[in-house]
Design a protein that fits this description.
Mean pLDDT: 95
Structural class: alpha/beta
Low-confidence stretches: none
Helix content: 40-55%
Largest sheet: 8 strands, mixed
Oligomer: single chain
CATH class: Alpha Beta
Strand content: 15-25%
CATH architecture: 3-Layer(aba) Sandwich
Strand order of the largest sheet: 1-2-4-3-5-6-7-8
Radius of gyration: 17 Å
Length: about 260
């Protein structure tokens, strides 16, 4: 089994192809499987690596360590243990936020970063997340999971049932450990929009036009980051890479090849 022992947990990952490394970071409660269309396409051009973040997929789920700062150190630990000096980073939502933190602290390790429907530390995306945290505390993990599925899957109608089924499987198999972290809500706050102008790493920001919250954040990140380029893809929601994989892959390939 492709596990690697990091400082604080065993991380599961899959690896394909050869060439310059591209590490794909998944979204919250998802895992490496969300990148299937990208693995199939990019493995013929690059060394493609898809790790499961701490507490996600098949990786270990420690009791604590679920802050953005922890994810940044986990990524550095992973790259070090894999003997990867520099890599292209591609991250969706939570994965994008991780890359921002990584670029702020370890910019020399990134060839480029691609932020897809990206989150950002310190940016308020609404009360729904905090309500789910409260639900996990009062009614348990399964109640929180069901509420999260209602929020995450409602965009996917019958025409997108394959995406919905894949996401539901990943969420159902998510450990839920992040909601049980005793330090949840107590970690030091970070504010990316105040710092992102420092990033010199070549950056591409991709958002779906129907993903109103994250496309607005994408615009703000682009405005404040002189090293970025920004594209909004119309009639697409949060899971851009799954909803229009061919267009997404083409956009990403052009960007990576320019490095």
């Amino acid at each position: 089994m492709p596990f690697i022992k990091l400082t604080h947990f065993r991380q599961y990952f899959k690896e394909y192809g050869s060439g310059k490394p591209v590490i794909f970071l998944h979204g919250f409660t998802l895992d490496r499987r969300m990148w299937r269309p990208q693995v199939d396409f990019f493995r013929q051009y690059y060394r493609v690596i898809t790790p499961d973040t701490r507490g996600h997929g098949l990786s270990d789920a420690p009791d604590t360590g679920y802050s953005r700062a922890d994810r940044v150190e986990d990524l550095k630990d992973f790259a070090d243990k894999m003997k990867i000096d520099r890599f292209h980073g591609v991250g969706l939502s939570m994965g994008g936020s991780t890359l921002i933190g990584f670029a702020l602290k370890y910019p020399e390790r990134l060839i480029s970063m691609t932020l897809v429907s990206s989150g950002a530390a310190g940016y308020d995306i609404g009360k729904k997340i905090s309500k789910i945290d409260d639900l996990a505390k009062t009614k348990g993990i399964e109640a929180a999971r069901e509420k999260w599925k209602n929020i995450s899957l409602k965009w996917f109608d019958d025409e997108k049932n394959e995406i919905r089924d894949l996401m539901e499987t990943m969420i159902n198999e998510h450990s839920g450990a992040v909601w049980q972290d005793p330090r949840r809500g107590k970690y030091p706050r970070e504010y990316d929009l105040e710092k992102i102008h420092r990033i010199k790493v070549p950056t591409k920001i991709i958002c779906g036009g129907e993903d109103k919250i994250f496309s607005q954040l994408g615009r703000l990140l682009n405005e404040k980051n002189p090293s970025s380029e920004f594209i909004v893809l119309n009639n697409v929601g949060h899971m851009v890479n799954l909803e229009i994989p061919d267009r997404f892959n083409a956009e990403l390939k052009v960007f990576l090849e320019a490095m």
